Structures are given as structure tokens and as C-alpha cells.
Amino acid sequence: MLNEASQMNQRVVLVGLESVGKTSLFSFLTEQRIGEEVNAKGSTIFLKERMFDSITIVDTPGLRMDDSETYQAVKEELNRADHALIKIKGTHFQEEFEFLWPLLSKGSFSSTLLVTFVDRMTESTRNKLKNYVITHKLNVVFLSPTEKTKQRRQQIITSIKEGKSLTLDARNKLASIHIDPTHPKKIGMRIEY
Ligand SMILES: Nc1nc2c(ncn2[C@@H]2O[C@H](COP(=O)(O)OP(=O)(O)OP(=O)(O)O)[C@@H](O)[C@H]2O)c(=O)[nH]1
Ligand SMILES: [Mg+2]
């Protein structure tokens, strides 16, 4: 059951490294096309907010190890957030989780962990992570482009509205799981995942 707070406007921030699919999710949740706040490569360059279902959602530029300005801007957004949608590529689960850890372990916002690029994980790493999440009842949603259904959208909205969170115990569990990265295969000059 949704509580009273869930009826009020909630501020939700999308957080993650570059190209993990934040803007794709922003567009999917708000049911609107991607706007003009991207550069030629499709990377988000400005914070952008939209409203849907009594939720204000903020799309942020991707975090990079060498970009402290973006890191600071995202950190400030998180200070104002009620909920964080944390996106991690399943193909690079361990390294991205470690990078985001300092942002996750502080703050008073509730949070949902969304694992993307599940379609690019090997079957064994995908199963390992999924089984781990089920066994430990972790608040983690798996998202691949082919699974962008109404039910998946509703699952994410429910997690936001109910103020579900990754508990400290869950975060510690996730930090301790070992998932081998799926290395990109080089095909000519292009890098394919
Ligand atoms: N295979 C696969 N591709 C995805 C997935 N999610 C997003 N993409 C693709 O990845 C690319 C980057 O997606 P964006 O939504 O722009 O990623 P972003 O996190 O907003 O990127 P930045 O703004 O640069 O940080 C797009 O071509 C998407 O179609 C996924 O789960 N699997
Ligand atoms: Mg983006």
C-alpha cells in the first residue's frame, strides 16, 4: 500500500556512469522523446527535469572518473533528492558499483538499483547476479531494451513511490559479490559490447 508521502511530489535523480542508459530510461518513464540536451554523440550535457505521475525526475550527465565538476553537480542534486535511480551496466557491475559506492553510502534518499545492459551480459554472470538478488531479496530491477514494458515501468514507479531502498546490508552484499566483467569485443574500429 502506498503511504501518504507517496502522493506528494517526489524528486528523483537518475545517477550513473556514462552511457549506462539514463536518458533512455528518462524518456521511457516520462513517455516522451529524448530532448535536445544531448551533444552530437547523444551524451547528456545538462541536468534536465521533467514531471510525470507526481514525480519530478532529473536526468544527469554521465559520471566520469576524471570529471569532478559533473560529480559535484550530481552530488548536489542527490542532496535535494527523495529518491535515486542508480543505473549500473551489468557488463561492468563490479567496477561501476565501486565507483558509485561513495555516493550511495551517504545521503537520506531512498534508492532503486537498476541494472542495464543485461542483454549484453554472459548467461552465467546474468544468472549469478539475478539469483543473488532473489536470494537476498534485494531492491534491484533488471532492465534490457526488450523488457521496456508497462509492467517494468510500473515496477520502477512503485519502488520510487513506496520509498523502497537499498539497505546498508544490501549494499554491503552487492559490494561483496564478484561478477566478472564482460569485456567489449573489438570489431574493426568499433567497440561492440
Ligand atoms: N544493449 C543495450 N543498450 C542500451 C541499454 N540501455 C541503453 N542502451 C543504449 O546505450 C546508448 C546510451 O544510452 P543513453 O540513454 O544515452 O545513456 P546515458 O546514460 O544517458 O548516457 P550519457 O548521457 O552519455 O551519460 C543508447 O544507444 C541506448 O540505446 C541496454 O540495456 N542494453
Ligand atoms: Mg544521457
Structure description:
- The protein has one domain: Rossmann fold (3-Layer(aba) Sandwich), CATH 3.40.50.
- Helices cover 35% and strands 21% of the residues.
- The C terminus is likely disordered.
- The protein is globular, with a radius of gyration of 16 Å.
- It has six helices and eight strands, in the order E-H-E-E-H-E-H-E-H-E-H-H-E-E.
- The strands form two sheets. The protein has a six-stranded mixed sheet with strand order 2-3-1-4-5-6, with helices on both faces. A two-stranded antiparallel ribbon has the order 7-8.
- With 193 residues, the protein is an alpha/beta fold.
- The longest helix has 13 residues.
- The structure holds guanosine-5'-triphosphate and magnesium ion (MG).
Output the keywords.
193 residues; alpha/beta; two-stranded antiparallel ribbon; disordered C terminus; binds guanosine-5'-triphosphate; binds magnesium ion
Short recap of the structure:
This protein has 193 residues and is of the alpha/beta class. Helix content is 35%, strand content 21%.
Q: What is the rounded distance between the termini? A: 40 Å
Residue windows where pLDDT falls under 50 for at least 5 positions = 186-193
Strand runs, count: 8
Q: Structural class of the helix and strand makeup?
A: alpha/beta
Biggest sheet, spatial arrangement of strands = 2-3-1-4-5-6
CATH topology label: Rossmann fold
Mean pLDDT: 84
CA-based shape = globular
* Count of discrete alpha- or pi-helical segments spanning 4 or more residues: 6
Total domain count:
1
Computed Rg: 16 Å
Cofactors, ions, other ligands: guanosine-5'-triphosphate, magnesium ion
Instruction: Report the order of strands and helices.
Output: EHEEHEHEHEHHEE
CATH architecture: 3-Layer(aba) Sandwich
Biggest sheet layout? 6 strands, mixed
Strand content: 15-25%
What is the CATH superfamily classification? P-loop containing nucleotide triphosphate hydrolases
CATH class category label: Alpha Beta
* Secondary structure: helix percent: 25-40%
